Sequence to fold (141 residues):
Amino acid sequence: MAASVASAHTIDFTSQRTFSRQVLAAHGTALDARDVDAMWQLNARQDGHLLAWKIIRYLDERDRFQNPRWLRALSRYEGPVHICWGEADAVAPVAVAKYLNQQVCPDATLTMLPDVGHFCETQAPEAWSEAVLGFYSGIER
Fold:
């Protein structure tokens, strides 16, 4: 089943028009057309968009590894954990962040970025940087 997921999505990243639709749908909020175009330019550089069938394999890996193994490892981590999440994320909804924070890493710092989608660092770089740098500056060394 997972292989068919990747195969079905391969075409989604081989044309600029479809790539743009997919990125905008995944983002969850308005994304500047210049940002989407820049993402496409990077994706298509040296015909990289023709390799989408390899890149999209992360869907297979996500299905294969989406089990308690990594969650157990994360829950056992004794260092500081920061979960920085866009409230409008259409790919990984807020429920995922809350689950991670409540069930997996109850001592983690959870930062929710309002009106921000899946690409926090692109859509709200100042807010994302402030949250991440603020978290790291508060860690005792």
Notes: The chain has a mean pLDDT of 81. Residues 125-137 form the longest helix (13 residues).
